[in-house]
Amino acid sequence: MYPFKRLTILCGHYGSGKTNVAVNIAAELKKSHDNVTVADLDIVNPYFRTKDSAAYFEEQGIRLICSAYANSNVDIPALPQEMYALTDDRSMTAVLDIGGDDRGALVLGRLAPKILLENDYEMLMVINGYRPLTRDAASTIEVLREIEYAGGIRFTGLVNNSNLGAMTTVEDVLASRDYAEEVSGLSGLPVVMTTVRQELYPAVVGKVPNAFPLGLQKNKYL
Amino acid sequence: MADKVLMKGNEAIAEAAIIAGCRHYFGYPITPQTEIAAYMAKRLPKIGGVFLQAESEVAAINMVYGVASTGTRVMTSSSSPGISLKSEGLSYLAGADLPSLVVNVQRGGPGLGGIQPSQADYFQATKGGGHGDFHMIVLAPSSVQEMAELTVHGFELADKYRMTSMILADGTMGQMMEPVALDALKVGEPVEKPWATTGTKLERVHNIVNSLSLVPEELEELNFARYERYKVIEENEVMYETYRMEDAEICIAAFGIASRVSRNAVDAAREMGIKVGMIRPITLWPFPKKAFKDSLATCKAYISVELSMGQMIEDVMLATEGKAPVTLCNRVGGMIPSPEQVLESIKETAARIGGNN
Q1: Less crowded by CB within 10 Å, the N or C end of chain A?
Q2: Would you kindly state where each structural domain of chain B is located, as residue ranges?
Q3: What is d(CA B196, CA B109) in angstroms, rounded to the nearest whole number?
Q4: Is B115 on the interface with A (CB under 8 A)?
Q5: pLDDT tens-place string over residues A51-81
Q6: Under CATH, to which class is B241-352 assigned?
Q7: DSSP 8-state secondary structure symbol assigned to residue A216
């Protein structure tokens, strides 16, 4: 298993697949850690929240920290008071699902001093080269820098989650290697994971850096 | 990497607008369409365009009026309550015969309603959209690719007929992500706009863009001329898709997200031996009246599947001239009919008309 730190912070362009990756990393962590928390700190998007998987978390004994308003259709950018446990309770291993772009990353500013002080975190940028505003390495780096500036934490790695949704093919995943490589080269950050749908995993494992299967998929809409 | 990108419906509209040459966007944020504004805010300044978050929807639609007067492609977008605020401007745009693109990503209503998908602004979009006699061309996409294609088409129709094209989507269409082939978008030649206020250069008389006309005889003439144009549109610009209609005895009428659900229900019913098909209007105005009328050759009953209390159903009834029963299958308030609900409705209808079971 990937050597996860106590805190795994997932940021990225909105629609890059952060939430889906977060849910799957939490499930993976639970295999080796008792006290696993997933925190939905999205203040940008009222839809497609980590909370969509609340029943699964409950069943797995994974703690979910999220705004009382998540998925309530009350469309306000609220944060849960429990979020301070992420830095204050060091007995937990947590995945932080941060909202999209620099606007979403503003939330991190509040936690950044304590996260940096403890220094047991990974700050991962989820990238999808099939998204229109991060189609090439240069524009991805632009978003990356904006997020770092807003969040007050430098990235430590990349998660290549390049996909075309349910229609993603093995070729699409393989074709994204060069893109991820280029982002890695420009940013100096390693590709710590290449995330793919479970069905595609056997065909890409070994062919992409650190393939990680996404067994859990939320697809609420048609 | 590949010629396809993974886009939200809202993003597809924004990018398609840019591809269509639109460099002016004015709007005010409202869920579930804020991604259009967010996308434009990022993109337009980089390509010499103007993104402006107006102080209100009313201000935004009047900025659209201003830019449209110069013959420049311009758009705004909003969701249901915001479109109501824009309706005065929509009427003024119609009165001044100005081309524009307006997007309504509908949410549940009335009032402030909710933020989940709805199709309850059908009447508002197709029967006017403001005071006075006028129409907008109303385009109803049912995929993210179509969000992009109809945006380009909407700009072109707007220019061609000097009127507002409205993209009537819903929260689902705006938020869902699908692969889009942007390269497939074809943009036609620009239309001459001799009426635009682009400066006389002392070579012609002033162009005046105005919706005020105080002489009743002249105002009547303007209305007559506008409706002559509408007739041409009704003859030439109707768009619809038929699905498994060849021998259909039951016809589903559905657009947008409702048509995606209905398609599954049609397939399930066909497997049970029920002869059912679907007509999916793509232009809600002009409504595909002839397609529905012609379907009477085989169809004995119609089901209008809507995310409203029954609005398009009236156009289906008018088009079928009371020659066959039309029933409603719906959910409202942000809810979407399930394929099972539509299938149930098909089965009930089949039993009622004594079909082929």
Answers
A1: N
A2: 4-236, 241-352
A3: 37
A4: yes
A5: 888 888 999 999 999 988 877 778 788 899 9
A6: alpha beta
A7: -
Indicate whether A221 pLDDT > 90. no
Find where tokens 């390049």 sit: A162
Instruction: Give residue A71's pLDDT.
Output: 76
Give the single-character DSSP code of B189. P
Which tokens go with A87? 């830095």
Please name the fold of domain A7-213. Answer: Rossmann fold (3.40.50)
Rg (CA), chain B: 21
Q: State how far residue B199 is from chain A, nearest Cα, in angstroms.
A: 37
Residue among B124, B151, B146 nearest B135 (CA): B124
Q: What is the pLDDT of residue B357?
A: 44
**B4-236 and B241-352: identical CATH topology:** yes
For residue range B266-325, list pLDDT tens digits in order: 999 999 999 999 999 999 999 999 999 999 999 999 999 999 999 999 999 999 999 999
Average pLDDT taken over every residue of chain A: 92
B39 touches A at CB < 8 Å: yes
Domain map (residue ranges) of chain A:
7-213
* Pairing status of strand A93-98 against strand A121-127: unpaired
Under 8 Å between Cβ of A189 and A172: no
Q: Is B71 on the interface with A (CB under 8 A)?
A: no
Would strands A63-66 and A7-12 be described as parallel, antiparallel, or unpaired? unpaired
ipTM of the predicted structure? 0.89
Can you state the angle between helices B57-69 and B80-95, rounded to 10 degrees? 30
Q: Which residue of B has its CA nearest to A176?
A: B1
Q: Nearest to residue B185, comparing CAs of A179, A15, A132, A168?
A: A132
Domain B4-236 has CATH 3.90.1480.10: no
Q: What are the backbone angles phi and psi of residue B27, rounded to the nearest 5°?
A: -165, 180
Average pLDDT over every residue of A152-156:
97
